[in-house]
Amino acid sequence: MNQQTRSTVQALAPYTQGKGVQFFPTEEAPFPGVPVQTTAEIDAPDSSLDFVVAGPHWIEGDLPTSLLQEWRRVLVEGGRLALLVEGATLPIDVLARYVGREGGFAMDNPMPLENGSWLLKGNRSFRHCLLQVTETLGREIGREDKPEGWESELAFSLGSLLLNAGDGQNAAIFFNNALAEEPQSIEAMIGLGLSLGLQANWRGAESVLQEVLVKEPGHPIATEWLERFRNNLLRPQPSRVSDPITGSATPTQVPGL
Fold this sequence. Notes:
Elements: H1 3-8, E1 20-23, E2 36-37, E3 49-54, H2 65-74, E4 75-85, H3 92-103, E5 105-107, E6 111-112, E7 118-124, H4 126-141, H5 150-164, H6 168-181, H7 186-198, H8 202-215, H9 220-233
Parallel strand pairs: 1-2, 1-3, 3-4
Antiparallel strand pairs: 4-7, 5-7, 6-7
């Protein structure tokens, strides 16, 4: 860690209250007693951490959408995110909007630090995600010249919103609608698979994600969640699983399978 980073890293200290992780190279981790995250994945349950803090290397290379989504996954509602930025190629306001949009965070104004560094901070906010989605949908629905495929995009956005809200049954309905419009949509298939998993329909979720991997071998999200759902298949299964379309206890029918 260079001298500039050492002198600015303490700006993260106020955001390390409670249970959380620090995203730093192991030998540079500045906060004793706080678990260190060095990869894009965190060994922690969903909504289980109060904070995530990260050194400036989080932004090195490509924009880390998957990293932001993983941080959102593990943070409780209202959980804090604090990130150091040094020498970003994007304007800092643009970078803050990217973090908020892609990670589902309500972002504060960027805070300037010494030597041209910045602190980006925000919190996990379902309300923020809701407002983002409804604002976008409102603009699209109100257009007279609606773009081709807007029905599928609407269904996917609503399914994503319901999935984030923990409503797997209704999310599956909208992802099925999106697939009816675009049967080859990998994103909608993954959404459907996660929705079925949220309902503990491990077999249905497994079938959908297997189909994704046939179309796109090695897809990282499908691979990760297929392994998780298969682990759940080894456990005792619930006696009844509701179909996301009919509400009955019959096996879920997945489009295209």
